[in-house]
Amino acid sequence: MKITDARVVVSSPGRNYVTLVIETEDGVTGVGDATLNGRELSVASYLRDHLCPLLIGRDARRIEDTWQYLYKGAYWRRGPVTMTAIAAVDVALWDIKGKAAGMPVYQLLGGAARDGVMVYGHASGSSLDDLSQDFQRHLDLGYKAIRVQAAVPGLDKTYGIAGAGGRVYEPANANRPQEDSWETSLYLDFAPEMLRHIRDEFGYGTHVLHDVHHRLSPIEAGRLGAALEPYRPFWMEDPTPAEDQSAFRLIRQHTTTPVAVGEVFNSVWDCQQLITERLIDYIRTSVSHTGGITHLRRVFSLADLYGVRSGSHGAGDLSPVAMAAALHVDLSIPNFGIQEYMGHTGPFEEVFRTGYTFSDGYMHPGEAPGLGVEFDEEAASRHPYDPRYLPVNRRLDGTVHDW
Ligand code: GCO
Ligand code: MG
């Protein structure tokens, strides 16, 4: 089953997505997501200029061999650009294998290990009252798990707050990054207050999550985790920048609040110490930034040995192709924890026709052969690339802080 064409489509149906399309001699086509938010064209070029020419003539059935060929053959290993490009090829080949077999990808991965995939949605607000309204909206939609973020009093621009009060979840500017504001002391006072507010109003029947977005030092994270314990968060996400894996030992000494890390990682090596020393509870690597289904399964298999569960990144900057691929993996692995589902906005449905479903807090990838996502290239061409920068973050005294 020879590959006859591999092409990259960069489009912006609501936000920017890089999609790889692979065609085979017998007419089976597969798609992969190659979106690296804010740095999209670097992956598009890696694919177009370096990987697509190598794919022509290869046997589409040899997924592992192709993965090794692209990874080891590059010499320059790991890194978000390389691993996102390899992920797109890998996911497209799994899509092709599923279509050729007439089976959804999860069946090829061993079949369903559960009936559905518990997902968490994002509730946010410019005030605690706004947050409550959004939390209620998610409950009404059926969510069993909800992430909460609210504007920190005293900081005029904070990440992760959608809609109300004119705030934007993830400001993305065309010419240069927007500058958010930050002050750890204000946040550390406010975050436990926010969790208390939600538990007082809604009780303990729903899983509540919170994303710290890499902004604390280890000892600050220990303090936050301890302060959150009475409100029993499902997890505290990305408490510190996790390049420094050993820093999590200090967090662990101070709190039993579960810790989730990994959305900026791109290989099993980035989380090896976190997993083998049991320094985290959930590993959040994504299918499209971590070398695709082939490598993500390797990460989750290592995690399984150490009692760490999955909690894949599923923000709206990963395309519906990535969402579908994640759901196939989630359904099939033994150590699934939870899946993020932020959903997609704008005219994305013109371009990506998805077969996955959401019902009562659980998702399912569907029964269509392959990934179950159809990509309409013609529709994509009506939504051209729209360059955007992600924000940067500064403390009130002007110091650049982790974003
Ligand atoms: C999350 C995230 C994201 C990231 C985004 C960056 O969903 O947990 O932290 O929303 O900020 O993916 O591009
Ligand atoms: Mg996050």
Automatic annotation (TrEMBL):
Presence of keyword Nucleotide-binding:
no
Q: Which GO terms describe its molecular function?
A: mannonate dehydratase activity
Q: List residues of the Mandelate racemase/muconate lactonizing enzyme C-terminal domain.
A: 128-258
Keywords (alphabetical) are:
Lyase
- Its EC number is 4.2.1.8
Q: Does the keyword Transferase apply?
A: no
Looking up NCBIfam families in the UniProt record yields: ManoateDhtManD (NF043051), PRK15072.1 (NF011654)
What protein is this chain from? D-mannonate dehydratase ManD
* Gene name as annotated: manD
